[in-house]
Amino acid sequence: MIIRPMEPEDADSVAQIEKDSFTQPWSRQGFLDAMRLPENIMLVAQEDGEILGYQCTYVSFDEGELTNIAVKKSARGKGVGAHLIRCLQEKAKESGVERIVLEARVTNEAAISLYQKMGFVNLGIRKNIYEHPVEDGVIMSYTAEENLC
């Protein structure tokens, strides 16, 4: 498996994984628009020509917001998400990003557990932030360390 920058030709595969993973998915055009901002960190995990997962992080000055991360259902539980986050952390550090924040549904225990394993800490809860179904979101943050490896 390789992790590489997301390219416009990945948009169809990424949008399909997004649609299969979320009740309020980004569109193909949403990914294309995000790719046009060079400061954003957008990565895909690929194996044998197939996109297994992706992550999108918006960067503003020294802070990044991990807005989207998903792994194809058939590839879940195989370390794809952890690999994407590890590469995000490395790219963020190289870009001068000191902190990465994210939000996850409180019921998404697998994601929250992965984020904690990858060094994210809970900052708090946002009430009723999600729709379809309505539920709370947990805010998490990662602060870059000197040595990731």
Automatic annotation (TrEMBL):
CDD domains per UniProt: NAT_SF
Primary localization class, coarse: cytoplasm
Alphabetic keyword roster: Cytoplasm, Transferase
N-terminal signal peptide: none
Reaction(s) this enzyme catalyzes, per UniProt: N-terminal L-alanyl-[ribosomal protein bS18] + acetyl-CoA = N-terminal N(alpha)-acetyl-L-alanyl-[ribosomal protein bS18] + CoA + H(+)
Described purpose of this protein according to its UniProt entry: Acetylates the N-terminal alanine of ribosomal protein bS18.
Protein name per UniProt: [Ribosomal protein bS18]-alanine N-acetyltransferase
Organism, as annotated: Agathobacter rectalis
Gene name for this UniProt entry: rimI
